[in-house]
Structure prediction request, 223 residues.
Amino acid sequence: MSEQVLPFYLVCDESYSMQGPPLDAINQELPLIYQEIASNPVVADRARLGIIGFSSTAEVLLPLADLNDVHSIPQLAPRGATSYGAAFSLLKQTIEQDITALKQSGHTPYRPTVFFLTDGLPTDQWQAEYKSLVSSDFKAHPTILAFGFGEADATTLQQVATFRAFIADGDMAPTQALREFARQLLNSVVQSAVASSANPSGAAQLVVPDQVPGYTVLAPDPI
Prediction:
């Protein structure tokens, strides 16, 4: 029987407004996330986590891979504007390639889960790329959780999310809110992998937060 795996993607805003404490906090947390996943054999076998950074353009910073093959974690760096369209276009292309590669390697990939993180409004027209990503015609269309802080707009986050959106409520400093975001990402990867491994012949058990400290929950309203 083929091995079932859960692909997760962190799609992170690297625009200049993220410069300083926000990106510093994410860069400090990412190695800890990977170390925690790698330390749990069940999770490492089941979960894959890739990283895409976006600003005026988008870039795969860490390809989706077996954690045993990951030897260093890239650092996010501030650059450019905030092109959601570039992020969604690259994300779809990357998912297509990753799902094909996983199947060719004998794996059964579940529907990808995306944690989308931004601190501001998009600076482009992104709707066409987004609709292509979440269309039912795209068989691997992902489940998207959107997180926003700083100048992020609640309505835009709701349009991006397909499952749940969260916006920082101001009760925490940005660095604290981002560390909480990282903790929720880690928890979702670990708990989903453990739950799915307990039921290997069934559907994936995606575990995502209902509430996040420091954030207000928003109902998704995809465009």
About this structure: The first helix runs from residue 21 to 38. The first strand starts at residue 3 and ends at 13. The chain has a mean pLDDT of 92.
